[in-house]
Amino acid sequence: MAMSMNVLQLADELRTEADAYRYLEGLRWRGKPVCPHCGSVGEHYFLTPANGKSRKTRTGAASERRVWKCRDCRKQFSVLTGTIFHGTKIPVRTWCFLVFEMAASKNGISAREVERKYGLCPRSAWFAMHRLREAMKRDPHAGLMSSIVIADETWFGGTPKNRHGHKRATKTRLQGQTDKTPILALVARQTGEVRSYAVPNVRAQNLSKVIKTQVNTPRTHLHTDSGPHYRKVAETFAMHSTVDHSAGEYVRNGATTNHAETYFSQLKRSLDGTHHHVSVEHLPRYLAEFDFRYTTCKDTDTERMTQIVEQTGGRRLTYA
Ligand SMILES: [Zn+2]
Prior knowledge:
Blueprint (H helix, E strand, L loop, with lengths): L6 H7 L3 H13 L15 E3 L7 E2 L5 E2 L3 E3 L6 E2 L14 H13 L6 H8 L3 H15 L8 E12 L9 H9 L6 E8 L5 E5 L5 H11 E11 L3 H5 L5 E5 L14 H18 L7 H13 L5 H10 L10
Parallel strand pairs: 6-9, 9-10
Antiparallel strand pairs: 1-4, 2-3, 4-5, 6-7, 7-8
Helix pairs in contact: 2-11, 3-11, 4-5, 5-10, 9-10
The chain binds zinc ion.
Protein backbone atom coordinates (compact mmCIF):
# COMPACT_ATOMS: atom_id res chain seq x y z
CA MET A 1 0.00 0.00 0.00
CA ALA A 2 1.28 3.43 -0.95
CA MET A 3 2.28 5.83 1.78
CA SER A 4 -0.58 8.00 2.96
CA MET A 5 -0.56 11.38 1.24
CA ASN A 6 -1.57 14.68 2.73
CA VAL A 7 -3.30 17.36 0.70
CA LEU A 8 -0.03 19.15 -0.25
CA GLN A 9 1.53 15.96 -1.56
CA LEU A 10 -1.65 15.20 -3.45
CA ALA A 11 -1.60 18.68 -5.04
CA ASP A 12 2.01 18.05 -6.08
CA GLU A 13 1.03 14.75 -7.68
CA LEU A 14 -1.94 16.25 -9.53
CA ARG A 15 -0.66 19.15 -11.58
CA THR A 16 -2.59 18.39 -14.78
CA GLU A 17 -5.74 16.57 -15.83
CA ALA A 18 -3.58 13.79 -17.30
CA ASP A 19 -1.92 13.41 -13.87
CA ALA A 20 -5.36 13.04 -12.32
CA TYR A 21 -6.35 10.31 -14.80
CA ARG A 22 -3.07 8.54 -14.09
CA TYR A 23 -3.64 8.84 -10.36
CA LEU A 24 -7.14 7.33 -10.55
CA GLU A 25 -5.83 4.56 -12.82
CA GLY A 26 -3.22 3.71 -10.19
CA LEU A 27 -5.77 3.52 -7.38
CA ARG A 28 -8.39 1.66 -9.38
CA TRP A 29 -6.37 -0.69 -11.60
CA ARG A 30 -2.98 -0.97 -9.89
CA GLY A 31 -1.18 -1.25 -13.22
CA LYS A 32 -3.67 -3.67 -14.80
CA PRO A 33 -6.35 -1.75 -16.71
CA VAL A 34 -9.76 -3.43 -16.71
CA CYS A 35 -11.97 -3.04 -19.79
CA PRO A 36 -15.40 -1.88 -18.55
CA HIS A 37 -17.06 -3.25 -21.70
CA CYS A 38 -16.00 -6.91 -21.56
CA GLY A 39 -14.20 -7.21 -18.21
CA SER A 40 -10.87 -8.20 -19.77
CA VAL A 41 -7.92 -7.39 -17.50
CA GLY A 42 -4.36 -6.53 -18.43
CA GLU A 43 -2.33 -5.61 -21.48
CA HIS A 44 -4.64 -3.15 -23.21
CA TYR A 45 -3.32 -0.55 -25.66
CA PHE A 46 -2.75 2.96 -24.44
CA LEU A 47 -3.73 5.39 -27.21
CA THR A 48 -1.23 8.22 -27.30
CA PRO A 49 -2.82 11.44 -28.63
CA ALA A 50 -1.67 12.42 -32.14
CA ASN A 51 0.13 15.52 -30.86
CA GLY A 52 1.50 13.57 -27.90
CA LYS A 53 -0.38 15.61 -25.31
CA SER A 54 -4.10 16.15 -25.83
CA ARG A 55 -6.97 15.14 -28.07
CA LYS A 56 -9.94 17.13 -29.33
CA THR A 57 -13.35 16.65 -27.80
CA ARG A 58 -16.58 16.88 -29.78
CA THR A 59 -16.72 20.62 -29.08
CA GLY A 60 -13.17 21.07 -30.37
CA ALA A 61 -11.69 21.83 -26.95
CA ALA A 62 -8.41 20.11 -25.98
CA SER A 63 -8.78 17.22 -23.54
CA GLU A 64 -6.05 15.42 -21.62
CA ARG A 65 -8.26 12.35 -21.23
CA ARG A 66 -6.20 9.17 -21.15
CA VAL A 67 -7.80 6.66 -23.50
CA TRP A 68 -7.22 2.90 -23.70
CA LYS A 69 -8.27 0.35 -26.28
CA CYS A 70 -9.25 -3.13 -25.21
CA ARG A 71 -7.13 -5.85 -26.82
CA ASP A 72 -10.06 -8.24 -26.71
CA CYS A 73 -13.24 -6.35 -27.59
CA ARG A 74 -11.39 -3.48 -29.32
CA LYS A 75 -13.56 -0.86 -27.64
CA GLN A 76 -12.11 2.30 -26.13
CA PHE A 77 -12.37 3.33 -22.50
CA SER A 78 -10.89 5.55 -19.83
CA VAL A 79 -10.71 5.07 -16.06
CA LEU A 80 -13.99 7.01 -15.84
CA THR A 81 -16.02 4.81 -18.21
CA GLY A 82 -18.92 3.11 -16.44
CA THR A 83 -18.14 4.67 -13.05
CA ILE A 84 -19.82 7.27 -10.86
CA PHE A 85 -17.56 9.77 -12.68
CA HIS A 86 -18.97 8.90 -16.10
CA GLY A 87 -20.09 11.91 -18.12
CA THR A 88 -18.86 14.38 -15.50
CA LYS A 89 -18.16 18.00 -16.36
CA ILE A 90 -16.14 18.47 -13.18
CA PRO A 91 -12.36 18.32 -13.82
CA VAL A 92 -10.85 14.97 -12.87
CA ARG A 93 -8.30 16.79 -10.70
CA THR A 94 -11.19 18.26 -8.69
CA TRP A 95 -12.72 14.80 -8.33
CA CYS A 96 -9.46 13.50 -6.86
CA PHE A 97 -9.56 16.22 -4.22
CA LEU A 98 -13.22 15.49 -3.48
CA VAL A 99 -12.35 11.83 -2.93
CA PHE A 100 -9.59 13.00 -0.62
CA GLU A 101 -12.05 15.19 1.34
CA MET A 102 -14.43 12.24 1.76
CA ALA A 103 -11.59 9.99 2.89
CA ALA A 104 -9.78 12.44 5.16
CA SER A 105 -12.48 14.54 6.84
CA LYS A 106 -13.65 13.03 10.11
CA ASN A 107 -17.14 14.51 9.95
CA GLY A 108 -17.50 14.63 6.18
CA ILE A 109 -17.73 17.78 4.12
CA SER A 110 -20.89 19.63 3.13
CA ALA A 111 -21.88 20.50 -0.42
CA ARG A 112 -21.65 24.17 0.58
CA GLU A 113 -18.03 23.79 1.64
CA VAL A 114 -17.22 21.94 -1.58
CA GLU A 115 -18.88 24.69 -3.58
CA ARG A 116 -16.70 27.36 -1.95
CA LYS A 117 -13.42 25.45 -1.74
CA TYR A 118 -13.50 24.05 -5.27
CA GLY A 119 -15.48 26.71 -7.14
CA LEU A 120 -18.32 24.42 -8.20
CA CYS A 121 -21.90 25.55 -8.68
CA PRO A 122 -24.28 24.42 -5.89
CA ARG A 123 -25.97 21.77 -8.00
CA SER A 124 -22.68 20.21 -9.20
CA ALA A 125 -21.30 20.17 -5.66
CA TRP A 126 -24.42 18.49 -4.31
CA PHE A 127 -24.52 15.80 -7.00
CA ALA A 128 -20.77 15.23 -6.80
CA MET A 129 -20.95 14.45 -3.11
CA HIS A 130 -23.89 12.11 -3.61
CA ARG A 131 -22.04 10.30 -6.39
CA LEU A 132 -19.17 9.75 -3.98
CA ARG A 133 -21.56 8.49 -1.30
CA GLU A 134 -22.74 5.95 -3.87
CA ALA A 135 -19.14 4.69 -4.13
CA MET A 136 -18.91 4.54 -0.33
CA LYS A 137 -21.87 2.15 -0.08
CA ARG A 138 -21.08 -1.30 1.13
CA ASP A 139 -20.44 -3.97 -1.48
CA PRO A 140 -23.91 -5.43 -2.09
CA HIS A 141 -22.36 -8.91 -1.96
CA ALA A 142 -20.78 -8.39 1.46
CA GLY A 143 -21.35 -11.42 3.68
CA LEU A 144 -23.48 -11.63 6.80
CA MET A 145 -22.19 -10.29 10.10
CA SER A 146 -21.57 -12.87 12.82
CA SER A 147 -19.81 -13.67 16.12
CA ILE A 148 -20.69 -10.71 18.36
CA VAL A 149 -23.04 -8.05 16.99
CA ILE A 150 -24.22 -4.99 18.89
CA ALA A 151 -27.64 -3.61 17.94
CA ASP A 152 -28.78 -0.20 19.08
CA GLU A 153 -31.00 2.59 17.83
CA THR A 154 -31.06 6.35 17.90
CA TRP A 155 -33.50 8.98 16.73
CA PHE A 156 -32.93 11.40 13.94
CA GLY A 157 -34.55 14.77 13.31
CA GLY A 158 -37.92 15.74 14.73
CA THR A 159 -39.02 18.13 17.39
CA PRO A 160 -36.60 19.42 20.04
CA LYS A 161 -38.80 18.35 22.94
CA ASN A 162 -38.13 14.75 22.03
CA ARG A 163 -34.45 15.27 21.54
CA HIS A 164 -33.52 13.95 24.99
CA GLY A 165 -34.70 10.84 26.71
CA HIS A 166 -34.35 7.75 24.62
CA LYS A 167 -37.13 5.92 26.48
CA ARG A 168 -39.69 8.69 26.11
CA ALA A 169 -38.96 9.01 22.40
CA THR A 170 -39.45 5.27 21.98
CA LYS A 171 -42.80 5.46 23.68
CA THR A 172 -44.11 8.39 21.65
CA ARG A 173 -42.83 6.80 18.46
CA LEU A 174 -44.75 3.65 19.18
CA GLN A 175 -47.83 5.79 19.65
CA GLY A 176 -47.09 7.39 16.31
CA GLN A 177 -46.72 10.87 17.80
CA THR A 178 -43.22 11.85 16.78
CA ASP A 179 -41.73 12.88 13.48
CA LYS A 180 -38.34 11.47 14.40
CA THR A 181 -36.87 8.67 12.33
CA PRO A 182 -35.24 5.74 14.12
CA ILE A 183 -31.80 4.65 12.93
CA LEU A 184 -30.75 1.09 13.68
CA ALA A 185 -27.01 0.43 13.87
CA LEU A 186 -25.43 -3.03 13.82
CA VAL A 187 -21.79 -3.18 14.86
CA ALA A 188 -19.68 -6.33 14.45
CA ARG A 189 -17.54 -6.32 17.57
CA GLN A 190 -14.53 -8.13 16.07
CA THR A 191 -14.20 -6.41 12.71
CA GLY A 192 -15.53 -3.01 13.77
CA GLU A 193 -17.83 -2.96 10.76
CA VAL A 194 -21.02 -0.96 11.15
CA ARG A 195 -24.20 -1.18 9.07
CA SER A 196 -26.94 1.30 9.79
CA TYR A 197 -30.47 1.71 8.52
CA ALA A 198 -33.25 4.24 8.74
CA VAL A 199 -36.25 2.18 9.86
CA PRO A 200 -39.91 3.18 10.00
CA ASN A 201 -40.24 2.17 13.67
CA VAL A 202 -38.48 0.06 16.30
CA ARG A 203 -41.05 -2.68 16.70
CA ALA A 204 -39.36 -6.05 17.10
CA GLN A 205 -40.85 -7.43 13.90
CA ASN A 206 -39.50 -4.55 11.90
CA LEU A 207 -36.00 -4.68 13.40
CA SER A 208 -35.85 -8.44 12.91
CA LYS A 209 -36.68 -8.03 9.24
CA VAL A 210 -33.62 -5.79 8.72
CA ILE A 211 -31.34 -7.82 10.99
CA LYS A 212 -32.20 -11.10 9.24
CA THR A 213 -30.77 -9.76 5.96
CA GLN A 214 -27.48 -8.66 7.60
CA VAL A 215 -26.67 -11.07 10.42
CA ASN A 216 -26.11 -14.81 10.63
CA THR A 217 -28.25 -14.92 13.76
CA PRO A 218 -27.81 -18.61 14.81
CA ARG A 219 -24.05 -17.99 14.88
CA THR A 220 -24.18 -14.65 16.64
CA HIS A 221 -24.18 -13.37 20.19
CA LEU A 222 -26.37 -10.26 20.30
CA HIS A 223 -25.56 -7.35 22.61
CA THR A 224 -28.21 -4.69 23.23
CA ASP A 225 -29.49 -2.36 25.93
CA SER A 226 -32.43 -3.56 27.98
CA GLY A 227 -35.06 -2.16 25.58
CA PRO A 228 -37.99 -4.61 25.65
CA HIS A 229 -38.22 -4.85 21.84
CA TYR A 230 -34.87 -6.64 21.71
CA ARG A 231 -36.15 -9.65 23.68
CA LYS A 232 -38.27 -10.70 20.70
CA VAL A 233 -35.52 -9.74 18.22
CA ALA A 234 -33.04 -11.95 20.12
CA GLU A 235 -35.07 -15.14 19.75
CA THR A 236 -33.25 -16.37 16.63
CA PHE A 237 -29.79 -15.48 17.97
CA ALA A 238 -27.45 -17.98 19.61
CA MET A 239 -27.21 -15.77 22.70
CA HIS A 240 -28.36 -12.39 23.97
CA SER A 241 -26.71 -10.17 26.58
CA THR A 242 -28.02 -6.83 27.74
CA VAL A 243 -26.77 -3.83 29.64
CA ASP A 244 -29.23 -1.81 31.66
CA HIS A 245 -28.56 1.85 30.96
CA SER A 246 -31.42 3.01 33.18
CA ALA A 247 -29.56 1.40 36.10
CA GLY A 248 -26.42 3.35 35.11
CA GLU A 249 -24.81 0.18 33.77
CA TYR A 250 -22.52 0.33 30.74
CA VAL A 251 -20.78 -3.03 30.73
CA ARG A 252 -22.13 -6.34 32.06
CA ASN A 253 -20.12 -9.54 31.67
CA GLY A 254 -18.33 -8.04 28.69
CA ALA A 255 -21.56 -6.97 27.01
CA THR A 256 -21.68 -3.34 26.01
CA THR A 257 -23.34 -1.14 23.42
CA ASN A 258 -20.60 1.50 23.66
CA HIS A 259 -19.42 0.89 20.09
CA ALA A 260 -22.84 1.74 18.71
CA GLU A 261 -23.04 4.83 20.91
CA THR A 262 -19.66 6.06 19.64
CA TYR A 263 -20.95 5.61 16.12
CA PHE A 264 -24.15 7.52 16.86
CA SER A 265 -22.37 10.42 18.53
CA GLN A 266 -20.07 10.80 15.52
CA LEU A 267 -23.03 10.51 13.16
CA LYS A 268 -24.94 13.22 15.01
CA ARG A 269 -21.93 15.49 15.15
CA SER A 270 -21.65 15.21 11.38
CA LEU A 271 -25.35 15.56 10.62
CA ASP A 272 -25.79 18.56 12.94
CA GLY A 273 -22.38 20.17 12.59
CA THR A 274 -21.42 19.59 8.97
CA HIS A 275 -24.59 19.04 7.03
CA HIS A 276 -27.09 21.02 9.17
CA HIS A 277 -30.15 19.80 7.38
CA VAL A 278 -30.48 16.32 5.96
CA SER A 279 -33.90 15.18 4.83
CA VAL A 280 -35.13 11.71 5.71
CA GLU A 281 -35.27 10.98 1.98
CA HIS A 282 -31.48 11.37 1.64
CA LEU A 283 -30.59 9.95 5.06
CA PRO A 284 -29.61 6.47 3.73
CA ARG A 285 -26.89 8.04 1.54
CA TYR A 286 -25.39 9.82 4.53
CA LEU A 287 -25.60 6.64 6.57
CA ALA A 288 -23.62 4.85 3.84
CA GLU A 289 -20.95 7.55 4.13
CA PHE A 290 -20.72 7.31 7.92
CA ASP A 291 -20.80 3.50 7.92
CA PHE A 292 -17.88 3.56 5.51
CA ARG A 293 -15.91 6.02 7.61
CA TYR A 294 -16.54 4.21 10.89
CA THR A 295 -15.78 0.78 9.41
CA THR A 296 -12.48 2.02 7.93
CA CYS A 297 -11.46 4.20 10.88
CA LYS A 298 -8.22 2.27 11.40
CA ASP A 299 -7.12 2.73 7.75
CA THR A 300 -5.00 5.60 6.42
CA ASP A 301 -6.54 8.36 4.32
CA THR A 302 -4.91 6.91 1.21
CA GLU A 303 -6.29 3.44 1.96
CA ARG A 304 -9.76 4.97 2.29
CA MET A 305 -9.26 6.88 -1.00
CA THR A 306 -8.23 3.66 -2.70
CA GLN A 307 -11.30 1.84 -1.47
CA ILE A 308 -13.62 4.63 -2.61
CA VAL A 309 -12.04 4.72 -6.10
CA GLU A 310 -12.12 0.90 -6.34
CA GLN A 311 -15.85 1.04 -5.62
CA THR A 312 -16.66 3.68 -8.25
CA GLY A 313 -17.25 1.06 -10.94
CA GLY A 314 -20.70 -0.25 -11.84
CA ARG A 315 -22.46 2.22 -9.57
CA ARG A 316 -23.73 4.89 -11.91
CA LEU A 317 -26.42 6.96 -10.31
CA THR A 318 -29.84 6.72 -11.81
CA TYR A 319 -31.19 9.94 -10.38
CA ALA A 320 -28.32 12.34 -11.21
ZN1 LIG B 1 -12.99 -5.18 -23.72
